[in-house]
Fold this protein.
Amino acid sequence: MMVPLTQLEVVGLRPRLDDALTALQELRLAEVVTIVDPGETPPDLADLIARTDALLELVDQSATGTVPSDSALRTTLDHVEPQVAKLLAEQEELRSEAEALPRSIDALDGLQPLVPELGRLDDRQLANLGLASMALVLDDPDLRIVPELTRQLADLLGRGYLMVTSPATPGNPVGCLLVLRRRDLPDVHALLGTERIVEVGVPAAYAGKSLRATVEAMRERLAALPGERDRVQARLAATVTPVAGSLHATIATLRARAERAVAATQADLSSRTFILRLWVPTKQTARVEQALTDRLGPAVAVERLDTSEQAEDQPVLLRNRPGWQPFQQLVGLLSWPSRGDLDPTGLTALVLPLFFGVMVGDVVYGALLLAAAWWLRSHWAKNSTIGEVGRVMMLGGAWTVLFGLLYGEALGSLGHSIGMPALWFYRGGPTALQPLLLFSLAIGLAHVVLGLLLGVWTAARGHQRRHLASKLGTLLVLAGLFGLAGVTAAGFPAQVLTPAVAALVVGVVVACVSQGALGLLLGPLDLLGALGNVLSYLRLAAVGLASTYLAEVANQLGARGPLLLGLLVAILFHALNLALAAFSPTIQALRLHYVEFFGQFYEGGGRLFAPLGGSVARGLESERLAALPSTAANSPEPVPAGSPV
């Protein structure tokens, strides 16, 4: 539900502004209204926060320590950051070397069997012969660079060179050993520099060695790299860990100061006084007033403002049952309610799992979803995203088991084939299509009518006459169509025909009149849209039947061939069907809820209540959860930022 908010105006002495903001920050019950242009975090403070955060990412954030002054913090950062930057650069060099060496080894190692004699000669021995060698690793993904290099060398050197390459395969580097006259070296270097040949040269550390010695040295270096990386990581930890405690203690203080600094720019300031306007939960206004009075005494005055008229900038504060919190996030995924809207969280929590169960409707699939939901909730904190996914999955799995009993389905047709009774009807039967389609249309009609009734209520409360008339006209048309269909196909009494026709005619007239001058065009379009919304719920039947038939295909494939192979094929197809059942019905249920249902009454466009101190509390809580093991499912949930304490 939506918590009512009250606006307070706080007037106090300007030197005590930070004290007032500190008191509000500790309460986490007041959102500061922007009176003047919203400001930004002071550059010096933002710089300290960024630098501190960067160092904290390198160490365990559970360390504790004392809070230093800004000057002491800057001194610490100035001392530590150059050392950390140097070590991080060493880490990056070692990482790059570990990635490049295997490619060079593979490419050059392929050259040794081709020229065993040259592979044993080093640069000094070649120089005595008036020769020089070049070992290259060429990136040649499409096998076009080596022929181009060969052509260019032939044009430049004629027959005065020898080039041997390792076997070339698309996407892999090519080793290249080039032996030439020493006097031709400058021309070849110039050629490699001017032509568009991507060259990955052998590192300088291996220069002057023979080809065989180069490969052996590279292998030794590659084996030594993990130890060097561990030593650099240890030096990095030894550099940052001594100051990690003070940095961790400081970051919360810095963020709190930054939040107060931004809030201070939103106040109306004079040379001696400040004026703050706050949004506060109505039931907590006395608590906020008392906290300000206790902190500032006679230096502050608090007045409650009249908010009976809708304020454009008023936020919304939602408070729902703990089990409904994941569905509140699903509402926000579309748009948060505005002040005049209803909070649809409860309806979302009731309807979405029901739709999911209608579509999947399998006892075994539901049991597997319940088991997966239990595992997720056991291994992640309740307030984490994955933990909330577990809550939604648990409700969907429960409804899936229930409808599986109604349909008599367990792994699709397997339950029906072994004699499992259907408490209602079996979806795979020859006579099941009609009741399934009628059931889907009945759900759609009930859901759309509920949305229209909520639309009538919100329009009446907001004195929106046109919207009220449009919703009433649509309701009458749907009632008339339902009556006509009942008389025609369901055996309703003949006496229903006249009221149904009357409701249909009156509904069309009211809907057209509500649209004004273009009513003759827009009115019928709106009515057709409402009828289309009801028909959209046929997807409940379509998605459910697709799941049933895919499960039946899995069972039929499993029954053919050898037992073990058939069992493996059936398991794979059922796993695929379960994965699709966990995804597609969820998307379809959300689509029906967002478009067909919310479209009847929900405006959206609101923003959540953001109390002073809330962002700092969320940051601390996320750091606390990050330091906990993944099995901390029974950890106490923090108070959500912005929720009344």
Remarks:
- The first strand starts at residue 2 and ends at 3.
- The two ends are 16 Å apart (CA to CA).
- Residues 620-645 have pLDDT under 50 and may be disordered.
- Residues 43 and 49 are 10 Å apart (CA to CA).
